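Quick start: what a row looks like.
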Amino acid sequence: MRITVDIPDALYRELRIKAAAEKCSVAELILRGVRVEPSLDSSKRGRRVVLPLIRSKRPGTLDIDNSKIAELVPFP
């Protein structure tokens, strides 16, 4: 199947440079990306990261180093 896609000039230049470096065509690079996209797990995209909180009795004055972090935060 043949389709038409508008690619910004700057991006197309990057694609041409990468294709030349990999000794393939721009079309092959684009197809490689199109083949990978459907297999990506969409549930992992945009997932919110929850960071551990270390509470302090006096906020802004917590003096902590790596050993204290290892004691306070459970690592798998």
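That is the whole record. Residues 9-41+49-72 form one domain. The chain has a mean pLDDT of 83.
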